Amino acid sequence: MNENDDLIVKAEKTDGGASDMFGGMEGVAEKAKDPKKTIKQLINYLKPQRTALTIVIILAVVSTVFAVIGPRVMGRVTTILVDGIVAHVLGTGLLTDFRQMGNLTAILITLYIVSAICNFFQELIMARLSVKVTYELREKIADKMHRLPINYYDTRSQGEVMSRMTNDVDLISQTLSMNLTQLITASTTILGTLIMMLSINLAMTAAALVIIPLSMWIMVMVMNKSHVFFSKQQEAMGSLNGIVEETYSGHDVVRSYSGEDDALEKFRKANGEVRKSGWKAQFMGNIVMPIFDFVGNIGYVLVAVMGGWLVVQRAITIGDVQAFIQYIQTFTYPLGELGAAGNMLQGTIAAAERVFEFLDEEEETPDPKISAHKDSYEGRVSFQNVRFGYDPEKIILHDFSKNVKPGQKVAIVGPTGAGKTTVVKLLMRFYEINSGKILIDGIDSTEFSRAELRHIFGMVLQDTWLYNASIMENIRYGSPDATDDEVIAAAKAAHCHKFIRTLPGGYNMILNEEASNISQGQKQLFTIARVILKNPAILILDEATSSIDTRTEVLIQSAMKKLMQGRTSFVIAHRLSTIKDADVIFVMKDGDIIEQGSHDNLLEQNGFYADLYNSQFDI
Q1: Computed over its alpha carbons, how large is the radius of gyration of the chain?
Q2: Cα 88 to Cα 310: distance, rounded to the nearest angstrom
């Protein structure tokens, strides 16, 4: 198993998937810590898109205004028709004025056509804008991920980091493409409808507006309740996703220990919590519109009674009553949309806050403007009074000093937590040392850019990393300019050429996402071939042959021995039998080198190393 002494305990929180919000939208239903700051950041981020946003707002307003005028025109048509019918019944005139009806109908059709056209282009522009913003956000996050220090990932779960690029960005995109225009049109509709209602009759408008305080009270109450339930649902979903990810990634271990029942019980418990919190959240989300419909129907009754009385009094026309009833429906529906959009915005602001927090995270120490560079490196390494601790209060390496000559094979051994892997990670500047210096060929490692520094090293770890691509591309990773012949030569040196030829597609065989279509030993051979192809000046081997069978290990050891000739090599050894031929062995304990020397010399000293070595052969 690989060394874990350099890892801080990871955060246990795992972010879950998005929750179903009002109207079927998805989002993070937690409150932002500082909404005002986040809104300001979001506005500043959207400033480059202000021209498109302005056009969208204008189109939304025009579309809404034209749609709002429609019922008034329709009411006029109704009045003319009814007046004509009444006149005909009383025998005092023609049935109706068809010419005026035709003109008003043409105006009505024009209004709705213009409204539809504006709405179409508004949606089109907003869709393109939201996709562009989403693309740029993901680009920024991806770029940021490569500039964050390694300890950021050591202290956070994978789900937490991934949710920034997936759930959070998707929610911002959905809000831009749908909820933002929904807010604009809803607000414009409410204002325009109110103006039209006032133009028809002040008393009827006052009666209709009685429902607004009731509607607002309901909206606030539902939003407060729903926030609690959606937060619980999100938390439950995070736990459920964590259990699923944990169980799936370790399903071999779960089965080997017959832990299926226990895993299923944990899943059922977490799934039950999601169901318990989920139905309450969905109920509160879906109850908004039925309540608004009920409140709206009360408004209809008030308007119908008062409108009928006013028509009898000849204060208004029957067409005005028809238009007013339409306006009440038009007026109450946007209130529901505002309630839904307002609740959705809570999640969006929280998601945006998480994204901006990620983008504002402290980055690695900047590379020097001009990187140190040499055409070739000898591989001389010097540790000078190096002190380091993941936590400044808990130092792991205490004044670590040691010189390594070019071409030396250095083995680092010691118990778990001794600091073995920490040493080599500091070499590659995965972490910054607290004090002291690490020199490469006499040059302070901080004078190199990280890319230049890491180009000097080749690393083979026990935990292999292969990606979803062909075997050829996986071996070529890190040496993109290598030819196919050079890749094949490296594979031959790593003794994996023969079995690659037996695989379906040979070097062109595609490895799946988990590289589970090849054995663990084969994975290790590919990573060794990758380092051979890179041809680095300094090698770092962290129990590189632990996953390979004995016969293959002999071949690999022979290939690695040839590769290490003339190159400085750091070998982290768990099986001490594999480093007998090391030029020098550093025995580490509690962050310090307590013994050093060759294998035979250390055994003769009969000290800590001898105890470690002999313990591996005790029965």
Answers
A1: 36
A2: 23
Burial call 33-72: b when 16+ CB within 10 Å, e when fewer: eeeeebbebbeebeeebeeebeebbebbbbbbbbbbbbbb
- pTM here is 0.64
CA angle (100, 101, 104) in 5-degree steps: 85
φ, ψ (nearest 5 deg) of residue 563: -65, -35
Task: Give the pLDDT confidence score for residue 13 in this predicted structure.
Answer: 35
Give the 3-state secondary structure percentages of the chain, helix then strand then coil, rounded to 5. 65, 10, 25
Helices 211-249 and 318-359: crossing angle, nearest 10°?
40
Q: Does the structure show a pLDDT above 50 at 20?
A: no
- The 10 Å Cβ neighbour count of residue 451 is 9
Q: Is residue 94 very low, low, confident or very high in pLDDT (cuts 50, 70, 90)?
A: low
Q: 481 to each of 374, 468, 475, 503, how far by Cα in Å?
A: 20, 19, 12, 25
What is the side-by-side strand order in the sheet with 397-404? 397-404, 381-388, 435-440, 443-444
Q: Would you state the pLDDT for residue 4?
A: 37
Per DSSP, which regions of 479-591 are E strands? 538-542, 568-572, 584-589
The number of helix segments (H) and strand segments (E) in the chain equals 22, 12
Structure token pair of residue 89: 């019944």
Report d(CA 539, CA 481) in Å as an integer: 21
